[in-house]
């Protein structure tokens, strides 16, 4: 198991007989993070777990990776997760967010991977891989899969025979259509499929190569491209929205009903994203002036918001993930947060953070929402 860049560095990647060629690279960029005027005090009085490791509410910005697009000759590609083998090496990045059972591999020792023994089906020609682990999750289907097109040059995409998309991905068919991919070039890959691809175009992650959520500003163009394909309907959407997660299985907010009721006095309308198609979710976020929401995958839609939109994210102390703060920064949104507390013990013990139950103060949420709305209108 090795990084693709290390595999490429073994030889001259520009030599005609090299297995790996870098065909495009996007320069690094710095993204500034405005301070958390409302959220910062919570970190002084609560014990909070920030994810991924090394992230901090104090951060005033980050420097992105320089994501590249590689072409790999005679690559083995396995499952809808897109696990890639080059010669005898499994590409480490292709294992991100994958489940061994579902993706069909086994771990051997500390750093070994064994793919299933089934003979691969030959795919002659050039294929762009947008396969991704955990693509049944809306965030991963949008960011880790389709949004990688944001760094693929049109000339490279136009020369490909097809684009590989993960089966059973959340919203994938709509994403592909909104990225203007004709149906004839989309090849859906199932969990039990394995291919030997003559030439595999492999774009790197647009939010960091090692588990970070350092979104490259190039994703803004991807969001704009998709949003431009969605017309009409925005006037009928509420301008102040609360993303209602009462139907969610993970991280249940036990007093969410109270939060919804109290925010209603400020004109916030609760919306359950699972009841909307992709196009309507884009219309909803694109038309919003203010959004309050518990942390959840649907906030990947913040990329469709107009600059200046107010965003107030609700966290529990056991799991603060800054990915949507970073998307907000890339899209020039007014971001802040409120932190509630888990009612299940989690400090200094191994637990599934996503199974924890939590509460947030409705008074604090309403006060914070009133504050950010006043600041936005000043």
Description:
- The chain is α/β, with parallel strands linked by helices and 378 residues long.
- It has 2 domains: 4-25 and 65-216, no CATH class; 234-377, 3-Layer(aba) Sandwich (Rossmann fold), CATH 3.40.50.
- The chain has 11 helices and 20 strands.
- It has helices at residues 4-9, 40-45, 100-103, 138-145, 154-158, 172-178, 219-228, 256-264, 278-287, 323-330, 362-377; strands at residues 20-25, 30-32, 50-51, 61-63, 68-78, 83-86, 89-90, 105-108, 112-115, 121-129, 162-166, 186-189, 194-203, 240-243, 269-271, 290-294, 310-316, 320-321, 334-342, 358-359.
- Strands 1, 5, 6, 7, 10, 11, 12 and 13 form an 8-stranded mixed sheet that branches.
- Strand 6 and strand 7 (89-90) form a beta hairpin.
- Helix 8 (256-264) runs parallel beside helix 11 (362-377).
- The radius of gyration is 21 Å and the shape is globular.
- The model has no long low-confidence stretch (mean pLDDT 92).
């Amino acid at each position: 198991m090795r990084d693709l860049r290390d595999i490429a560095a073994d030889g001259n990647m520009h030599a005609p007989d090299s297995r790996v060629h870098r065909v495009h690279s996007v320069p690094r960029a710095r993204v500034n993070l405005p301070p958390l005027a409302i959220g910062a005090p919570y970190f002084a009085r609560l014990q909070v777990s920030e994810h991924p490791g090394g992230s901090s509410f104090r951060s005033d910005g980050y420097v992105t990776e320089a994501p590249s697009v590689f072409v790999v000759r005679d690559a083995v590609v396995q499952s809808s997760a897109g696990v890639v083998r080059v010669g005898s090496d499994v590409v480490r990045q292709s294992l991100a967010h994958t489940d061994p059972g579902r993706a069909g591999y086994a771990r051997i020792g500390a750093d070994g991977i064994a793919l299933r023994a089934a003979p691969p089906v030959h795919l002659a020609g050039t294929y762009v891989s947008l396969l991704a682990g955990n693509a049944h999750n809306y965030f991963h289907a949008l960011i880790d899969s389709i949004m990688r097109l944001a760094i693929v040059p049109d000339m490279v995409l136009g020369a490909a025979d097809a684009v590989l998309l993960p089966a059973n991905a959340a919203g994938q068919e709509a994403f592909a259509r909104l990225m203007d991919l004709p149906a004839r070039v989309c090849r859906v890959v199932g969990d039990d499929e394995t291919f030997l691809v003559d030439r595999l175009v492999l774009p790197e992650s647009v939010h960091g190569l090692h588990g970070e959520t350092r979104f490259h500003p190039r994703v803004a163009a991807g969001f704009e491209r998709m949003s431009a394909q969605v017309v009409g309907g925005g006037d009928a959407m509420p301008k102040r929205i609360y993303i209602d997660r009462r139907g969610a299985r993970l991280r249940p907010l036990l007093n969410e009903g109270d939060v919804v009721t109290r925010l209603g006095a400020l004109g916030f309308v609760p919306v359950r994203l699972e009841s909307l198609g992709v196009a309507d979710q884009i219309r909803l976020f694109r038309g919003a002036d203010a959004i309050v929401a518990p942390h959840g995958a649907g906030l990947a839609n913040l990329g469709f918001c107009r600059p200046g939109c107010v965003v107030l994210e609700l966290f529990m102390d056991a799991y603060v993930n800054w990915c949507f703060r970073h998307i907000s920064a890339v899209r020039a949104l007014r971001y802040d947060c409120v932190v509630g507390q888990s009612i299940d013990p989690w400090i200094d013990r191994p637990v599934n953070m996503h199974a924890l139950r939590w509460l947030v103060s409705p008074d604090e949420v309403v006060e914070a929402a009133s504050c950010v709305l006043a600041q936005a209108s000043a």
